[in-house]
Each structure stands twice: as structure tokens, then as C-alpha cells.
Design a protein that fits this description.
Length: about 110
Amino acid sequence: MEIAILVISIAVKIIDVVIFLYSGLIIIRAILSWFQPDPANKFVRILHKLTDPVLEPIRSFVMEKLGLYMGGIDFSPLILILALGALNRLIHWGAAALLQSLISNG
């Protein structure tokens, strides 16, 4: 049982770190968009390759379905960061419930 608790705790911590780092990439991308960096820049290309697959569907949905395109402001990074935060909380709640059941049935 101790091994299961350790594995769950490590998995949740790894997910925390991944979500934190990906959120950081989204924030960097949003800030860089204000300065219109050179698209040929290697860092910018890597950043776009890492973030576009997730941002593009959100951007498309927000602009086309919801019509939220106000003065050229792209809300997709904000929506993604909020969604990642919610996902992280759900994972924590699920892991806490699982750990509680393991401990109480222990």
C-alpha cells in the first residue's frame, strides 16, 4: 500500500510540473506576441510547435463559434491556462480521494 501511495504522489507531482511548465510556455508565447518576434527565430518556432496544437483549436472555437475577437485580443492563452488550472485541481481532488480510500481501506 505504501508503494501505491508513493506512486500516486509522484505521478501527481510530475503532472503538476508538466502543467506548470506548459503554462509558462503559454505565458511566454502570449507576451512574445505583443512584440511580434521574428517567426524564423528558432526559439519562436519551437514555442509555436509546442503550443499551436493546443491553442489553435481553442482559438478557432473562441473566434468562430463564440465570436470573441475583441480588437485583435486573443483569449485562447487565457482560456487554456484556466483550463489547465482546472484540470490540475481535478487531478489533485481525484488523487486525494484515491489516497484517502487506500489509507482507510489499508
